[in-house]
Amino acid sequence: MLEGMEPPSNSRTCKVRRILADLEPKDQKILEDALADHMRWSSQSLTGALRSRGIMISVHPILAHRKGICRCSTI
After folding, report:
1. Rounded to 5 degrees, what are φ and ψ at 37?
2. pTM for this entry
3. Contact, 14 vs 61, CB < 8 A?
4. Using CA atoms, how far apart are residues 2 and 51, in angstroms rounded to an integer?
5. Residue from 69, 8, 65, 73 nearest 38 by CA
6. Each residue of 4-18: pLDDT tens digit?
7. What is the DSSP string of 10-72?
8. What are the distances in angstroms from CA 37 to CA 5, 7, 15, 17?
9. Under 8 Å CB-to-CB from 17, ≥6 apart: which residues?
């Protein structure tokens, strides 16, 4: 059942940064603006908006990225 199971890659970037890298420049800007706008976008509502558009992410990476405590904050 667990044959072929591998540990996750040791990426130096967080999931939010990897998602940003996969987006077109226009969409990158939209997501960066939403991440910076704590008043209009709660982390939970941003998670829901991304998931409804097929970007699978949980609230925890968004919270960590916003707080500057994610993997990519040390790069």
Report:
1. -95, 80
2. 0.81
3. yes
4. 28
5. 65
6. 887 766 667 899 999
7. --SS-HHHHHHHHS-HHHHHHHHHHHH-TTT--HHHHHHHHHHTT----HHHHHHHHHT-SGG
8. 38, 34, 19, 17
9. 65, 70, 71, 72
